[in-house]
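Narrative of activities, Objective 1.

The group set out to show that a structural description can be obtained from nothing but a protein's sequence at a throughput compatible with the screening campaign. Below is one input-output pair from the validation batch, recorded exactly as produced.
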Amino acid sequence: MSSEAKAVKKLIEQQSFGVLSTYSVAVEGFPFGSVTPYSLTDTYNPLIFISNLAQHTKNIAQDNRVSLIILENLQDGAEDLQKHGRASILGRAMPLETSGAENEAKYQKYFQRFPEAEGYQNTHGFQLYEITPVRIRFIGGFGKIFWLEPEQLVH
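Output recorded for this entry:
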């Protein structure tokens, strides 16, 4: 596995939330960002648990292309934020049914990381979505910038 893939894996495994950007339905053509927790599948696809009442979910229903940006933990008083790592996962978000062994396992994986979310399952139309990455952009500080193909994370 390349050092680039290891850097991306380390960052996305260590963090628990990111900024999800979708194409706005309310303000057509503009990006819409919202904070969302995530977990990962065995192939490093992000899993997000979102309500059908949320604006980002309505946006995904119209256009499932998304970006999930994940930032390295920033220390209070950090002098130069540009030196911190970040990954932008560009992909397509698809809802997962609760039935089927593979999907049930993904729901359980998410609830293991966020046990409080399991109670949301029966309220406000929460459903698990899987983001299938198309490409990943990583910035690890000045001079550490590259694109990564999703399959590079699993090889």
